């Protein structure tokens, strides 16, 4: 019995150590200037319903007629399909623009969800 429990303990420790091996746990940091974002699929595609100097609010799966409602009403209709993204300069974008957004992949779990964009591309005005 003692031999069996020793073997089980040894197997458990071996599997635990094996699971810790492999790639390092450093974060994947995307350099905006050298990013190849456009070669991969956008993380988010939607319509801008609000913007500030350094952020935009985007929704998707919302009827075009509903975009005339207030921001609060649009967010209620869009739930959970909304995202606030921080970006270095949003001056090229206006409310109503359809955009594709590539992000760092780290999001705050709120509503709307929040994150940081590495690239924003205008799809349609």
Automatic annotation (TrEMBL):
The keyword Transcription regulation does not apply. Keywords: Signal. It holds the Pfam family DUF3221. Gene3D superfamilies: Nucleic acid-binding proteins. The keyword S-adenosyl-L-methionine does not apply. Residues 1-21 form the signal peptide. It comes from the Bacteria. This is DUF3221 domain-containing protein.
């Amino acid at each position: 019995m003692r031999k069996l429990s020793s073997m089980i303990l040894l197997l458990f420790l071996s599997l635990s150590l094996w699971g810790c091996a492999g790639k390092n746990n450093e974060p994947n940091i995307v350099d905006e200037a050298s990013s190849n974002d456009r070669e991969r699929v956008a993380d988010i595609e939607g319509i801008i319903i609000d913007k500030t100097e350094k952020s935009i609010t985007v929704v998707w799966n919302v009827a075009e007629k509903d975009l005339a409602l207030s921001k609060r009403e649009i967010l209620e209709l869009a739930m959970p399909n909304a995202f606030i993204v921080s970006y270095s300069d949003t001056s090229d974008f206006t409310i109503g623009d359809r955009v594709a957004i590539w992000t760092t992949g780290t999001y705050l779990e709120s509503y709307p969800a929040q994150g940081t964009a590495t690239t924003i591309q205008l799809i349609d005005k």
